[in-house]
């Protein structure tokens, strides 16, 4: 949805749906204060001031506004309003923000994984409720990307891409764009699916890998690949909305900060696959 059409009423409606799902017994005082500030806003500029807006990095022009509303089990989950892939188009999403590095040897490992599963299920419920209410979500982004793919059909490129992202709608929209450019694309919606895909296919020209995923993160996928002699040199483009220590992921061919315009992703893929002259 264009930012000019995304008025206060829609933002407040989306926040109300979030709170109903995340805080069934009512939100705590700290969250209520943030919502009160939102209610007091009288224009879009004041609404944006309630949200956290990290400074743009690497000259990426897409905007991402977050509001930490948490849930009754985890205080760090965020309501997100962001421009993603298509310039000027904004969508609501939930950032579970549960990327702490908890390893199997830690005493709370099983409990942490259970919390991450809970957060993921809650995210899907909230986003599903938004979609049912006609609010702009990644389902709308997928449809928009499919429309763009039909207009930008230019199948001159060659290459096999594995696209790994737990945001199903985003992955399917990106796959449509890549296929319209001639690439062969397979999808994986969980890090655990990557190695079986590689074993079945013999490898890909490029893996576009999301860093933040439930069950098995992008970092864990990379560690698994680099430990396997068959896939040690598999090129990987890592994408994330989080601030991460690149020293933790030193074996990526490239790194891309979310949210990004699709033109930047496509240019980077062309460069990595040697398609710049297409």
Could you characterize the architecture of this molecule?
It is a single chain. The protein is an alpha/beta fold and 278 residues long. The chain has two domains: 3-136, no CATH class; 139-272, Rossmann fold. It is built from nine helices and eight strands. The strands form two sheets. The protein has a five-stranded parallel β-sheet with strand order 5-4-6-7-8, covered by helices on one side. The protein has a three-stranded antiparallel β-sheet with strand order 1-2-3. The longest helix is centred in the middle third of the chain and has 24 residues, at 109-132. The chain is globular, with a radius of gyration of 19 Å. The mean pLDDT is 89.
Radius of gyration: 19 Å
Unreliable runs: none
Give me the strand/helix succession.
HHHEEEHHEHEHEHEEH
Total strands: 8
Distance linking N and C termini:
32 Å
Total domain count: 2
Q: How large is the share of residues in beta strands?
A: 5-15%
Rough shape? globular
Q: What is the helix content?
A: 40-55%
Instruction: Tell me, rounded to a whole number, the average pLDDT.
Output: 89
DSSP helical segment count = 9
Structural class from helices and strands? Answer: alpha/beta
Major sheet attributes: 5 strands, parallel
How would you write the strand order of the largest sheet?
5-4-6-7-8
């Amino acid at each position: 949805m264009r930012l000019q059409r995304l008025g206060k009423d829609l933002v407040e409606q989306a926040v109300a749906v979030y709170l109903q799902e995340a805080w069934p017994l009512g939100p705590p005082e700290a969250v209520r204060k943030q919502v009160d500030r939102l209610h007091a806003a009288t224009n879009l500029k004041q609404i944006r001031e309630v949200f956290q807006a990290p400074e743009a990095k690497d000259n990426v022009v897409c905007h991402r506004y977050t509001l930490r509303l948490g849930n009754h089990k985890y205080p760090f989950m965020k309501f997100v309003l962001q421009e993603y892939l298509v310039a000027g188009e904004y969508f609501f999403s939930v950032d579970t923000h549960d990327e702490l590095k908890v390893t199997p040897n830690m005493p709370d490992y099983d409990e942490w994984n259970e919390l991450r599963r809970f957060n993921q299920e809650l995210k899907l419920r909230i986003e599903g409720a938004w979609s049912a209410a006609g609010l702009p979500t990644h389902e709308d982004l997928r449809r928009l990307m499919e429309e763009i793919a039909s207009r930008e059909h230019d199948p001159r490129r060659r290459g096999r891409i594995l696209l790994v992202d737990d945001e199903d709608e985003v992955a399917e929209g990106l796959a449509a764009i890549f296929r319209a450019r001639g690439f062969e694309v397979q999808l994986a919606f969980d890090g655990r699916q990557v190695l079986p895909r590689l074993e079945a296919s013999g490898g890909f020209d490029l893996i576009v890998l999301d860093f933040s995923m439930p069950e098995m993160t992008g970092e864990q996928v990379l560690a698994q690949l680099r430990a396997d002699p068959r896939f040690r040199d598999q090129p990987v483009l890592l994408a994330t909305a989080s601030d991460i220590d690149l020293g933790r992921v030193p074996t990526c061919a490239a790194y891309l900060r979310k949210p990004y315009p699709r033109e930047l992703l496509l240019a980077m893929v062309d460069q990595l696959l040697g398609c710049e002259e297409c």
